[in-house]
Sequence to fold (134 residues):
Amino acid sequence: MVEARARWTDQERFLGIATSGHAIVIDAATEKTANSPMELVLIGLCACTASDVVSILRKKREPFTSLEVRAQAERPPNPPSVYTEIKLIYRVGGKVSRKAVEDAVRLSKEKYCSVSAMLEKTAKIAVEIEYMDE
Fold:
């Protein structure tokens, strides 16, 4: 079982700690002294799918040299303000097979990324791939 907790520190800031024991500061207000809970959801999505893509490309022995996944998301102004549209932009460096990258992104989205599977219950997730030939 995974366990997580958030402990109020001051103002609208919290210290979040999960089973791994690592801590993160969260700012639930407009102070922007740390990431908000909803920003952390997007960061989690980016990291989840990036991890899948790296693993798949390594298994295929693709010579990628860099990978960055960015998320752009829309949500309505009224609560609960869940994400309704998310665009994931994968930026891949190296002399990689485009088909291998496209397959890795598809497999992450359709099969492996748990965060994506949860968010797809409320959001349409689109993908875009940018290649930086190095």
Remarks:
- Helices lie at 37-59, 98-112, 114-119.
- The domain at 37-132 is CATH 3.30.300.20 (GMP Synthetase; Chain A, domain 3).
